[in-house]
Amino acid sequence: MNDKIGIAVVGAGYWGPNLVRNAQATPALRMEYLCDLNEARARQVIGDYSTVRVSTSLDDVLADPAVQAVAIATPASTHVDIALAALAAGKHVLVEKPLASTFADGAKVVQAAEDAGLVLMLDHTYCYTPAVQHLRELVRGGDLGELQYLDSVRINLGLVQSDVDVIWDLAPHDLSIFDAVLPDDVSPVAVAARGSDPLGCGQVCVAHLTIELSNGAIGHVHVNWLSPTKVRTTIVGGSRRTAVWDDLNPTQRLAVYDRSVETHDPSTLGIDVRNQTRVSYRIGDMVAPALPEKEALRSMMTEFAAAITEGRPALTDGRSGLRVLAMLEAAGESLRSNGVSVPVQVQA
Ligand SMILES: NC(=O)c1ccc[n+]([C@@H]2O[C@H](COP(=O)([O-])OP(=O)(O)OC[C@H]3O[C@@H](n4cnc5c(N)ncnc54)[C@H](O)[C@@H]3O)[C@@H](O)[C@H]2O)c1
């Protein structure tokens, strides 16, 4: 019992209960507190028959030596203050996406964690799905060949938020997936974004991001709160194979197409076939890899506990949160400048 890591979850709204449930199901963790400004909401989440304590005081929770780690599921604008307080109290921190509302604030949190030698991890949930983990191996292991493009669509009838636009609400998922699968020698260079607010609600509800990558490949993200149909697909195209992930198709979430388009040097072709044969299509099999059915949040919590125990950065560490913030900030600046391409600044 005592070698378990005591954890407090802060935030009992829509997402916090998922963290509570998965922390309770993680053998290396011991749920100590659920903290929320709204005591009744936290009590309702914990129920009557639990040893987990409910608190409205973050200070009390942070002062308790039984707590070694804090998971933050409060609105984005509160992440920095809560994370800095937890780190100052010597607690490891798991924080919901996005890490902060600005890159500069995110950098402060990353620096504080690194100075204190504590784990700072982002809940980039999708990075822990079996599909993205497989995609990561395919791309980084070179199975797809040279990376040519990434294309991600995340659209449905979504809750129009008052404090964030659709890019800050939904695109962290796609951008964190891109960040997880990109090979180490490929990075985002610039972002161009266009968006619209057809409802006149003061927030961009439909947006398209184009991301220029350092190897010349292109990334695209379409996020939309106004689509009556729900689509969750990510396509990663390579020179040899293309992977298509459809998160809403449980019988075939991932499909890998052994197909490619090849070009030929015209000087090697006879004059009569030059125009027709500069490009040829190679059509091979499609394979749907068998993926385990595992809850991503469970794997994410297990990774948080393992990073603490092993004293190592988590797969989605604070730096990955900063890289996502850098792309979100570039997208925001581009939106305000009519879609011009804005460099991604990742220096903390
Ligand atoms: N990983 C995912 O897939 C995913 C999905 C949904 C939401 N989220 C993220 O989770 C976070 C929370 O989103 P939500 O939809 O649950 O919000 P929410 O508004 O439903 O809940 C937030 C809760 O935090 C509490 N709170 C606010 N400030 C607090 C403070 N200072 N101290 C203690 N409690 C405080 C509120 O009372 C509320 O109960 C956001 O960062 C969001 O982006 C992540």
TrEMBL record:
Instruction: Give every Gfo/Idh/MocA-like oxidoreductase N-terminal domain span.
Output: 6-124
**Which domain of life, per UniProt?**
Bacteria
One Pfam family for this entry, by name?
Answer: GFO_IDH_MocA_C3
Against Gene3D superfamilies, the record matches this protein to:
Dihydrodipicolinate Reductase, domain 2, NAD(P)-binding Rossmann-like Domain
Domain called GFO/IDH/MocA-like oxidoreductase: residue spans: 132-237
Q: What is this protein called?
A: Gfo/Idh/MocA family protein
**Organism encoding this protein:** Blastococcus deserti
